[in-house]
Batch of 3 targets.
Target 1
Amino acid sequence: MSIENAKTLEIYEKSFQSYFDGTDRRAKSIGEKIAVEKFNKECQFWLDGFSALPNAATILEIGSANGAGAKALIEHGYAATASDTVQGFLDEIKRNGLTPIKFNVLTDRLSRKYHGCLAWHVFVHFTKEDAKVALLNIYDLLYPGGRLVFDVQNSSAKHNKDSEWIDYDGDYHMGAKRFFQYYTKDDIEYIIKNAGFNIVKLIERESDSGINWFRLVVEKPNGVTPRIKKYIEDKIMPLYRTMAGHSDEHIRQVIWRGLNFAEQINEGVIKVNNFAECPESKINYDMVYVIAAFHDLGRSVDDATHEKISAKMLLEDQELPKFFNPKQLNIMAEAIEDHRASNNHDPRSIYGKIVSSADRNTNVDVMLKRCYEAIRDEYSSETEDEVIEITRKVLRKKYGGKSGYAAKKIYFEDPDFEAALDKMELITRDPVDFRKLYNNSTA
């Protein structure tokens, strides 16, 4: 972390209330209605940038200040987490009803991954070297295919200044100078590409205060061959939307998690002893992607044996031999057959372990809903109280106490699934508490 950024953070630590007062003055000077409209326009840019992410995607807001960004994302269905490094901001976020984490993107590391990151008006205080570090650290925070939405100030309105220390007059006055970094289009494109990101969107915008901005959406590559991705998106994913009671939401989640495990194995974060099935001792991202995409197709025919049907559908697909050799196709079919947590044997290959692990739901609310709906269909003559109690017992058998059959089959370190298991253990312990929780979650 640069001296410039460290000193700027010190100013915010001492003067965070001045920052909030300035924001309030700004809103009053332009009118509350206009201030809300301006925020909503910014929010729409974020939503457009994150639109390619799965439903209820996890998003980390970096430099949240009062948490308004994370709160807006939550209201639009995302699982957003606010973060900041200034204690006064963290306290304000809590007062606004969120639970933030203390996090400095330049110095800290997190054990979990996110589908997206939002860093709005944050990079303005990073030197160009800081920006390089921040982008590399955010790259590591994201799942393959994850997106970062952020902005930087454009140097075009700064009379060719590269950076400066300034305390704005009027509404943005804080009583102390902060460091601001400015970028040319070539500057920011170079830094982004060197960090490994692809640029999805880059637009230039001038604010009413005369500040020029570059607004950016960048994406972490997922390693999948574009032609394969196009075939799966065009021909396979739509099949899930035609299944009664199904959608492609779960499949996309398995794809995201599977590619994340593959990336961690290839980078040595996850240690694997046997690479006999992996070309050139590396996990093939295309294979993981296709296995995840096909693994539940058989549910359209028979849920009880869907893994065998799905594997057969993969082997009979006429397009896949254009991309994979017979050995690879066989490994992929075996992985699909082996993915179910209820199987009495472990997967035969690393690919089976990847898709089996990726298939574990990490959203407790979704676990509860899917289990209840299945029990309700099977026990249609039972009372509502009886269905809820059967649901609790099934969930406890599968996940509870980390001794359930699904909980036992964890092949890689998986903080998200571990957290879900801990939560499931608590909520399924007591029948009365579970009933109350269920009633509250469906109210």
Target 2
Amino acid sequence: MSDQDLLSGIGGGSEPQMIGDMSPLTVMQRVSAAQQPPTLPQPFPPGKLPTPPSPRVASSLAPSTRGFKIGENQSPLPQDRVYFTFDYFNNLNAAQNRRFEAPVDNLRAYRYIFGLEKTFDQGRGSIGIQLPLDTLTADSTIQGPFAKPGGTSTALNDLTIFTKYILKRNPETGSLISAGLAVTPATGPSTFAGATDLTAIHDTTVQPFIGYLWRRGDFYLHGFVAIDVPTSSRDVTMVYNDIGIGYYVYRNRDPDAVLTALVPTFEVHINDPLTHGDYNNPLDLTGTPNVINLTYGLSALIGPNSVVTFGVVTPVTGPRPFDYELLVLLNFRFGQSRGPRASLPIVGGG
């Protein structure tokens, strides 16, 4: 079997990708005294001036600019594709906001991610880029004619460059192990969505990872193990474990069919901080809890080249980083990743 035939067997028409969970990391939102309702003066003895009130600082948690996870709309298999991811996070970090008596609530985040991946070395490896456009919306809890935090902000955030390469593969089944690296330079604004109320550690992060894919008939299992290392010790180092399973409940091998496959999936995403794990410390800007998220999804394969995926993510550990997350993934394959056979879906985010 030639290299091209081999790669066609595990590539063209057989590229699974995860949905993911894209857990937003947390940063503290600091609100100055000017944004707090003033404290009414108290009576004081004649001839004695009152002590000026100390600045009040309130905290809330919001997603940081560190938004890339290799388990989000990615596959262990190198691919030729153009892709788009939409994420919606509802009621971000509500428990922690209440704990710290934050001046904002009902935080919502919207992420629009645009990406391109291109294979090399006859499909053994690939290199890709992706760029997020982020929006953050929050409601202020402060009443009265005072300066209020919150509102809506939108900005392009950090560009990510990633590469992956197949280390070992089974030509009979398409199962494989791959490795890669993602680098996210600090190219965007210092805060998520450019929100002016946020204070964040904004640095370059490096994310080496191992990917794996195991296939048996209509069933498959895939995932990633990654460590996300910042260039600043003030930032949190994260370990990601993402695993998913899927099963083809419908296939149509007619190359002219509109709907060629339906694949329900289930994923578990474990996000562990190696540093800065004291998320209850209001002085630690990057204090991050351990988070486990469950992802449920359905992929519809349209023709030989397109995959549309819908997913919902629910956290199962506290403090919950969000109430729920909704995802829509679009992938269009080209080059040798095109194929007439029904293909597996993408691994989601986390």
Target 3
Amino acid sequence: MSDTVREDRWKILPVVLLAPFMGCLDGSIVNVALPTMARDLGAGLDGVQWTVSIYLMVVSALVLVFGKVADLIGKKRVFIWGFLVFGSGSLLCALAWDLPVLIAARSFQAIGAAMFMSSNQGIIATIFPPKERGRALGLMGTTVAIGTMIGPPLGGIMVELFGWPSLFLVNIPISIFAFVAGAAMLPHEVKKGLLAGFDLVGALLFALFIFALFFFLLDGQVSGWSAPAELASLVVAVLCFLLFFAHERRVADPMIDLSIFRSGLFSVSVLCVLLVFCASFCVNIVQPFYLQDVLGLSPALAGLVLLAAPLMSGVIAPLSGYLADHVGGEALTVLGLLVELAALVGMSFLGTGSSPLLAAAFLGLFGLGQGVFGSPNTKLIMTHAPQSKLGIAGSVNALARNMGMVSGIAFAVSILYGVMSARLGRKVSGFVPGAGGAFVFGMRAAFLAAAGIIVIAIGLTATRARRSRVSSANAEA
């Protein structure tokens, strides 16, 4: 893929944007179907939630690995074949007859998602000139937000009408289209097609770090944080991270160029992505159960209520991206986080007798904050990264997003059922019929904890804004 500006770049962009949309959509679309899947597969929430968790774990573990592979054998090749793997995994998910098979199929599906999600931002950075990259990457940020937040409502409607296997079958025609369109439209790269320079040791250490860390986070809330398996996984995670860091500093061609994190503004922006998506998934994982189990809504009606967030985000995000191009993104990110904070505090007051319309209003407010925050923050990440490392920056951004999703699941479920267990005087790992009040009590604690995460993000963005002004003033002087 050459650096020549492509005349058809705006025609190529929709094909490339299918990657973040589908990757994030499938990371969240299963959430609303978890109660139905648990009943059909004879599993509890703590087991069936692994269909969501394993997908995000595999994507997080492999997105940087495939980013490096794409640099060696070509972004186009990794992108289009990723959709083929993703579509095949989706078919296997739809045909799964029990929970272990479904979890294995979701893992295979996630490999494809990691492939195309690792390539999309690098393709955009290559085919668009610097003066248009902000707009194109802003649209990608919008696509990420919509894909993440439209999953639960769309999933609810599809489960109600067609059953949970339809959540995976719908991916197949889209994957075929992306493969064919990508093969035909994406520019060809002249690559040797060899993996001789691939940092295999770094890739293995990083993957082990992700899996060990996320096992600790996700299984700890079920088995207990001090259980032998959890403590062992935490030790493995710490050791793998330290070994990975030391290895990457020594190796000639590292999997991750750690110098990109020397920019404090870049690092803060990426950390904010992780925090915001952690808080977002607290909402995504808890609200479907509240709407269906506490308020008694059907999956379809719950899906319509949940649709308020992505609709608002989809309307606001393009406007926010446009404003970021003209007035800068610092103030917009702070404003978006303040709106999200207000929405989370509002959700914490929902009860057993609350109106679904009130829940929809708070979800819409949360989507408004997401839309205001997302595009400007993505642009700031790519602006603070060196031009020669835009591909790496995109992969790091995708990793932070997925790590935030997994952390949000563990965070929300742990607080929700920990508080419920304390309230009921016995350990629970799912909704208890007739105990809606206990669920609401746990939900309130989860949402207030998520609000605390947003407060930290607000502090970081405010600090980033001050540092950015100082840097600009020094540059002008």
